[in-house]
Amino acid sequence: MAIVDEEGEFMVQCETCDVWQHGLCVGYEDEGQVANISYYCEECRPDLHQDLIKYAFSMFSNVT
Question: Which CATH number does the domain housing residue 33 bear?
Answer without folding.
Answer: 3.30.40.10
